[in-house]
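Record 1 of the preview.
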Amino acid sequence: MRTVLSVVGGGALSAALATSAIAVGHDTPTYLLSMEISDGNRLVAKPTLTFKGDEPAQIEIGEQDGSRYSMRVTLSPQADGTVSMASTITVAPAGRAAHRVMPVLRVGLGKPSTFEFGTESPTEKPFRVNFTVDRTGG
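->
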């Protein structure tokens, strides 16, 4: 068994989740964050968020079995064309202890990336967020 905390690619929550959108001016960068969130081998959600740079967006998921997931993320544009992605991710599967991580990643726009943490063994897989950040305006 091994404990995993990794980032792959450029830089990382179904129940049915909706898209969050905020109307913004043309001078403010806006971003589209597309995610695929998995807890072990189970797909939790495939949300897409649209929001202004430097303003946080949050998503919360509650499942019928009592599992709860939340992610708060802020994207900040960087001079080199990347974005800094600051997140707080809380994973509370039903019947198990909750885990919170607070990664800060630098990610390339349009580059698929993966963030994962947890335990990996022949019978367990880590929590994983596959994601892509695209700039949509500003």
